[in-house]
Amino acid sequence: MDIVSSKTMTQTTQEEYINTSNNANIASKSLSIFGDTGTIGGKNIHMYAKNVRADKTVYATELSLIHI
């Protein structure tokens, strides 16, 4: 099933939104994901980022700082 929109598409629910797939891709020029609580990631997730801001402890097995 394809859902296509040439303008804005909005999905809203009062309770809970569940999206499940064996493989999912989200692509955008500008992307925001936010919430009050939750988890992003897992055992085999890799993250590539220009900046990371954390208000609490960051746990890492290895940290390399590269100055360019």
Description:
- This protein has 68 residues and is largely without helices or strands.
- 0% of the residues lie in helices and 0% in strands.
- It contains no helices and no strands.
- The relative contact order is 0.06.
Please work out how many helical segments DSSP would assign. 0
Distance between the termini: 46 Å
Largest sheet: none
Spans of at least 5 consecutive residues whose pLDDT stays below 50 are none
Shape: extended
**What is the helix content?**
under 10%
Task: Please tally the β strands and state the result.
Answer: 0
Mean pLDDT value: 88
Percentage beta strand: under 5%
Q: Tags for this entry?
A:
extended; about 0% helix; about 70 residues; little secondary structure
Write the layout of secondary structure elements.
Blueprint: no helix or strand
In short:
0% of the residues lie in helices and 0% in strands.
